[in-house]
Amino acid sequence: MFNGQKTPPLKVNQLFDSRRFNRFTAITGETDADFVNRYLSKFIQAEVVLGASPAKHVNSASEVITKVALTDALLAVANKKPAKLFEALSSGNQANVLNGLFKFEYAPAQAIYSRFYLLSNEESGDCRVILGSIDLTAESFAKDRNQYSEVLVFDNDQRLFNNLLDHFKHDIKPVLRPYFSDNLLKAAQQQLDEIKKDQSAEGTSVVILDNDTTDQVAAQDMTDIISHDLQQQIDSAIIPHDTTIAMRNVTTDRSLVKEEIERDTKQHDTIYNLQKLSVSPRAAKPKIKDRQKIYQQVKEALVSGMTPQQRTAEKKYTTFLYDRPMERNLVNNNSGLYVPNDAGTHPIPFGKLATISQIRDSLKSIGDVMQGYQRYVVDYSDNYGKRFYEAIMYSFTAPFLWEIRTKASLNPEDGNDIPNFLILGATAGSGKSTLLRIINQLTWNTDRSLIDFGTIYPTDIAQKKSKTVEAIEHYMKTGSSYPVLLDEIEPYFFQQDQYSRHLVVDTMNELVNNPRAIAPLIGTTNYDSGFTMLRETARRTYYLQIDKVIDEKLKGEANRYIYNVRQTLNNTLFKDFALRMASLLEDDETPWRSFDPKTGRLDFLAQTRQLFREYYKMAGMEVPEYFADTICDDFKESSRNSWAKLYLTQEDDFKYREGDDSLLFDISKLNPANGFTADSIEKYRNALPIELCVNGINGKRGKFVEIKAKDFFNWIGERNPYAGETPAAPEVSQDRQQPAEKPKKKGFWARLFG
Length: 754
Description:
Blueprint: H1 12-15, E1 23-28, H2 33-40, E2 45-50, H3 61-78, H4 81-88, H5 91-98, E3 102-106, E4 116-120, E5 127-132, E6 151-155, H6 158-172, E7 177-178, H7 182-197, H8 211-235, H9 243-248, H10 254-277, H11 291-303, H12 308-314, E8 322-323, E9 337-340, E10 347-350, H13 356-376, H14 382-397, H15 401-408, E11 421-426, H16 432-444, E12 451-452, H17 464-476, E13 484-489, H18 492-495, H19 497-513, E14 521-526, H20 535-538, E15 542-546, H21 555-566, H22 572-586, H23 606-619, H24 634-649, E16 654-657, E17 662-666, H25 680-687, E18 704-708, H26 709-716, H27 748-753
Parallel strand pairs: 1-2, 2-3, 11-14, 11-15, 12-13, 13-14
Antiparallel strand pairs: 1-4, 3-7, 4-5, 5-6, 8-9, 9-10, 16-17, 17-18
Helix pairs in contact: 3-8, 10-11, 13-21, 13-23, 14-16
Protein name: ATP-binding protein
Organism: Limosilactobacillus antri DSM 16041
InterPro entries: P-loop_NTPase (IPR027417)
């Protein structure tokens, strides 16, 4: 379209008219040497900016810098794209570049998606603006391509031209760097100088660099991008100072992205194959097969990537509760939660206000559950009972956690303070599976939604561990926000990096960067089987330790009691809770960032606690003593307890270094030969807070662990024999701070250059 009017098709040389215009400024997605040589050579001056292509898997501002701009810049140089483009330019255009008449630029730390072209002639005053979805490549203008592109041309629209030129000079120009680096141009000029000295090369003026030279240029340029270009933009506040943190963390969710790429590749192969099979294979003039055959092929294609065992495992999760905040309508008592109707044909709203009598009955039923633990658990205390009530409140809040995370997080990483995983570390005979069934009844009015971790796949199936974790990930990502209830999670899941890191760490990273409804996981595991968690897994998990057993002498009576109580349980209170929580989420005044004054930790269940307190008030009942007022921190307390016992029983193995005021401990002694379990080394290593170690994470590695003596004795609550002081008693579990997070792996550039 030309000046708002449809015109006959213009040729490329008419569009980029170098006879009428002599100066050219462009922001394009890509270009090639053939296009430059054919259509831009006759301009007196040309400035071409190579922008970014739309990228997948990018969710935050820091990722645009690290995973788009910087990654693309480094990849382009590593693949020698600037050198290849320069070599393919005509000798005249190479000279134009060397003389500064032609400039090619890019932004190593900014994603530029602009596309516009400015042509001008200062002598005549003519100007042209070209807007559209085109690049400076022959493919963009090819007639035989099945594609649509828009090209809008505005001639002598001085206002539009000046606005875009000002935008280019003031907004875009400051973030640009030369695409043809000084290293490349220096190498090119050196070759031209050598050519001038060589009489046998008379008449030659084109630059063609050898591989050794371009290798050297690539190494220098990649170094300069990071050490100079990026640093300069940080120093100039063009990009944030915390970009370096994003660079260090750039690989944290890489395994998740790689799996998505692999799935995408498999899906493409399936679709390609489906297209191929949809056409008669041997006919001279192939025809599309009839509808019934294609339908059968489509059905087969949809399941071709799954084994019968995988299809069976997929069907184990059947509980669906969909959170749709945009559909929330409190006037009509619509919480925004939906469930399938009984026939499974369409969704229906979930949630219903309860009467005072129903609220009272529900609270009494929960009270009866807690009374069962009070009666039959050995050494029960109200402080211990808080863990059961915390699990219930977490389960009520679970469908809304992803929304709460968006409202409580000032920075993306704050989302880790609202964990999508609740793990009940329980000893055998503590009633952990019963608690999981009770949670299911209180929220879903059934006890049949539990999934047994060990039976997701048959015992004899190959790669059972990895396939089990894949299945759990699938359950969590079906779009439902009802928690996945997983019983008897085996210890290897938490101890081995490839499983817990993949599911817990990568899923939480995905949630904080791209908030959406990924079902929380509520699971039980055996505490007394050498249980431990990797610290970065613990950082993103709410861990409650249920380590007291039901009295063996009263087990029969306890079973009868809890059976009778469970007959009274239903999800009436949860339906009411759904509407009240939805109301809080719709209220902009709801304070989601509530911190415990002692620990400084975010209490992501604060509003749930308040709602339950209001329930007790409405019902005319006292808030029970086992009602928790803040988050528990049982993993930190369990870790402290383990090291305290280790010190008290192995005191002679802790060697004091007076110069550093530190303790050296040979962690390799925690082996089966000395009475420890096979995984004790990693268990204790994971349990030791990084902040207690000399040189941070380095103090935890290797054969010898080096610990700050003063801080260590304060932590375990024992007298420091090397200071003559008695430390203050340690806080109970819920008042302890969260362990520090492990530093993330190095980024791409560090792996490339060591």
